[in-house]
Amino acid sequence: MLREIHLSSFKCFDTLDLPLGSLTLLTGVNGGGKSSVMQALMLLSQTFSQQEWGSSLLLEGPGLSLGNVADVINQDSARRSLAMGITTDEQKVKWLFKAEDRRALSIELEQVEVNGALVPLGTATRWLMPPDEAAASPVIAALRHLSWITAERTGPRELLPLRVADGHARVGHHGEMAAGLLYWRGEDEVNSAMCLPDTPPTLFHQVRGYMQRFFPGCDLRVSPIDGVSAISLRLRSDSRSDFQRPQNVGFGLTQLFPIIVALLAAQADDVLLIENPEVHLHPRAQQEIGMLLAETAASGVQVILETHSDHVLNGVRLAVKQKKLPAADVRVHFFSHRPGQAAAPESPMMDDDGRLDSWPEGFFDQFDIALSELM
User: Fold this and answer.
1) Which stretches of the chain drop beneath a pLDDT of 50?
2) pLDDT score, position 78
3) Which residues of the chain form beta strands (DSSP E)?
4) What pLDDT score does 308 carry?
């Protein structure tokens, strides 16, 4: 499990040391730094996936494209370097990257520290570490089991990609591979801790059950298209109606579908990054997804999410109060924007009843502000 992320001279951060839990909520104003935290994790994971052997951090990739060195190095510093560090229960790794050309689309590895000690870099570098160190590294293993679902999820589509089974190990950054994953892995058994009662424990049936939990009467069907490397997803919102094209049943179902598939298909020790799970969901469903994310974290899958929804937060708080997830496993970070100052989040602590020990200014307080003006 990832326990902490360290960033130095990366985007809006001069320096940041951010604790992570089984479930971590990144909240706050636009431009405060939430997405930058997610992007740092994704840059490392994407580099490992796209360039197993190499000594540079890729800034331009198929999932995340951040531009050149000048775009990612903190604008308030005159440095040509940045640092990223990850801590797990067993290990702490810190990478220092240095660029001679701020126009470059990658940044070269300068040095690596493991548990505070410099590690000699030889002629070969695997996953940004010496090969022997990399193969046994808990940090590398965690980052290689990381999945990211962006806020820009694939909306209703006639056809979705269908690849070979190994090509559907994850739902895809935009959720575009979720239907194919469900097609290939529909008979896989879901973690018993996540299984709905009175529902077969296979992935397909559990996904159907959870979709019905959010949208009563909902059902789904996935079918390969003959002669085309594509699959169709058909949905219905009422058991008495026919299956329809996704664009005829509302955005909410198609936005939630890949998240449900990702949560139920995840294995223990996987790390899921999810941006704005509340998109196109009504308030009750937003609260429900908060509770489901907490249940997923309790099952052994680490979840890091960015959210602007107080309903998602309240779903997590209710899950803690109902003893579905220990309060000690939750981290909440609020990022505010202070011009001229380093971006430093405030981190309210949650107790066993789901109560927070502080409520920073601007932290999900807009309802109270508007109510006071209306009164």
Assistant:
1) none
2) 60
3) 2-10, 13-19, 23-28, 56-58, 81-88, 92-98, 106-114, 117-119, 146-149, 160-161, 219-224, 230-236, 271-275, 302-306, 330-335
4) 94
pTM of the model: 0.93
Residue spans of alpha helices (H) in 27-68? 34-50
Q: Two tokens at 335?
A: 């990022």
- Sequence-distant (≥ 6) Cβ neighbours of residue 374 within 8 angstroms: none
What pLDDT is recorded for position 89? 94
Pick from 343, 348, 344: nearest CA to 365 = 348
- Distance between CA atoms of residues 303 and 274, nearest Å: 8
What is residue 270's predicted lDDT score, i.e. its pLDDT? 95
Q: CA Rg, the chain, in Å?
A: 21
Amino acid at 334: F
Task: Count the alpha carbons within 13 Å of 278 in the hemisphere toward its beta carbon.
Answer: 22
Q: What is the pLDDT of residue 252?
A: 87
Residue 237 DSSP class? S
State the average pLDDT for the chain: 91
Rounded to whole angstroms, the Cα distance separating 346 from 229 reads: 47
| Beta strand pairing call for 146-149 and 271-275 | parallel
The 8-class DSSP code of residue 123 comes to S
d(CA 365, CA 92): 36
Q: pLDDT tens digits for 72-98?
A: 987 665 678 999 999 999 999 999 999
Structure tokens at 105: 């689309």
Q: Closest by alpha carbon to 261, among 323, 159, 184?
A: 184
Q: Annotate 269-316 with DSSP letters as a single string.
A: T-EEEEE-TTTT--HHHHHHHHHHHHHHHHTT-EEEEE---HHHHHHH
Please report where in the chains the tokens 């790794």 appear, as a residue.
Answer: 93
Residue-level pLDDT at 6: 97
Pairing outcome for strands 56-58 and 330-335: unpaired
